[in-house]
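Ticket #4471: structure export looks truncated?
Reporter: QA, pipeline team
Priority: medium

Steps to reproduce: submit the single chain below to the structure queue and open the exported record.
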Amino acid sequence: MTMHRNSSLAPFLLVLAATMAFAQEEPKPASPPEPPAPAATTEKSVVTGTRMSEGDERRYSTATKIVFGREELDRYGDTSLGEVLKRLPGITISGAPGRGGDIRMRGLGRGYTMIMINGEPAPRGFSMDSLTPEQVERIEIMRAPVAEHSARAIAGSINIVLREELVKRENDVRPGLGWEEGRWQPGIWVQKSDTLDKLNYNVGANVLHRDLPRYVATTTTAIDTRTGAPTLAQEQRDQSNSRSDSLNLNARLNWRMDGGNNFALIPFMNTSRSKAAGSTVLEQSLGAQQPPFASTLWRYESDNTMARVIGNLRQRFSNGARLELRFNGGQAASDSRTDRDEFDAAGGVVHVIRNSVGIRDTTFSTGGKYSRPLGSGHQFAAGWDLEAGQRKETAASLQDGVDPLARYGDDIQAQTRRLAAFAQDEWDISPLWAAYGGLRWETIRTRSESALASARNQSSVLSPLLHSVWRFDPESKDQVRAALTRTYRAPTLANLVAVPTLSPNYPVSGPNTPTSADSVGNPDLKPELAWGLDLAFEHYFSAGGLVSASVFARSIDNLIRNVTSLQVVNWSPVQRWVSTPRNIGTATSRGVELEAKFRLDEVIADAPKVNLRANYSRYWSNVEDVPGPDNRLDQQPRQTANIGVDYRLSALPLTLGGNFNWTQAYVVQQTAAQLYYQGRKRVADVYALWRFDPNTQVRLSASNLLAADYETANREIFGTTDQSARTATRTYRSYAARMEIRF
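Actual output as written to the record:
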């Protein structure tokens, strides 16, 4: 691994030269090369033709790839992709159930998990909520990366494969109606698939209305560490309701050309409009200073639009080689406005806050991959990726008619450039042993500009990636996997931009607190670098079931963590509590992941034909430069588990099922003076599916049946004060009915 400021293009030129050499070389006349054996399959996921089953894709891939298709996506009638992901092995979703959140693999937070769309890194500005399950063909989970994908995947990668073309005519209509806390959530999905000569196409549209309540209670207390006497006691209650309407459009156009060549065009778009209104009540029973307000009324509006198009050209050659060229471009636009009026106990206005933000993200990427067989079961590939992105952000913040950040200007512009080159070799060394070796070089440059602050950051990483799978005999249902990889986590744009964001609950003229601090980026951040080891044992049943046990370890350098401190700042006449990301040292993470998926009669003779799905994960981590005992990686739980069951009645065309999701409560010592707590998370979902005929069925579902509060807490110890803020977010049961018609 190397990392330096002035990176050479030599690795890229070397790989490109090797690609050209292989492309021009003509093979000696001989018998046609055999197709690569399934064991060496790590191809990018935009493919045509007959696919292997989900179980076979996993079994015969040299690099671990867990595939979940339409059955899993449709099972509970979810309206959000995050609700599907939370049930999959090794994945957790932060935040309150049903309200979205960061997607985490192996308990590791934002930036550790690479999210891809059709094998390409998701662009900045992309939100998982902008895709519905109906727009997705399958989900692929890769616990360790391969060279053709980005190595920004310390925890692993999740590849979202959009709807593919179908080889038959089919229309699909799915009207649905949800209900949550007395509020209706209607929606409809329409899809049409057909073939016109050499063109296969798939066009879909989804319209969804959401009407969601929210209630949060926050209790803030402080004590004097010298005497143990309480010095502060506050309770804040936030209540709101939000409404949103969204339209999702997607298509896949696939032209089949002579010689097995094809060109695919995949456009998709999402547009949504949201409005929310709420109130806050702040009661203080103890404190040396008066609270900044007693109550508030606020309103929020946002408009979001994302449009992208993906193109993919595949060219086949007579020597068995293939060339893939692809592009991916689009724009995301977001405009939001918040109006907040704060009142004292007598009802008088004490603060008026008006904030507006407009963001425009434009990205374009292109790349290619040349692959050719080097013999039976032996495949070489090399290629490149190039990405350019630009963000323009216009923000206005008025607090009592004054802009506290006026000196920074209203506009922020940022640019990113990413260049990568890779080479990989896959080889079925014997009928029992397959191996994969890859090398990826990637460099990222970031530049941001504002009226007062500018920043530049560049990092380069060279990542060797090794995978292997061993089968005990040619017909064995047991196999062992191993992977050794070099991965990294790049700082986000928000981590780098040196423009402050003010704490959300207080005007700049009033007191902010360690548990509600301002934040500002750090342009000198270095990427986190990690060595990773993955080992797994898998057993496959004859009818398609499996059990697996895997262990992993990650050793991370240059760990990034937000550190809160009291600082003299240039946006306030008084000192402010400010949270800033910093590289604080090294960390390790380890874990055990167990998974089982089978029909009960596969393991117990004459048992009912009940389908069981279960996964369990146990994680350990340690941050070297933070005192224990809870010096874990940020927001990584110790244990998570899922158990699901499905049963199709023999006497009726009815299938019943349910799933229970559990995350253990945990504490993280973030720094010597900062501590984070998250309460246990329990989510129970059930569904019933009545099939009238092969083309018509009705699905009823209920989510978050326990409706347990989602609890978090932050604690800061500074000087002689120990202050804690504990938050309880109310959650709600959600019910839905959906009819699914194909014709």
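Status: closed, not a bug. The export was complete when the record was re-opened. Leaving a note from the reviewer for reference: The chain has one domain: 10-742.
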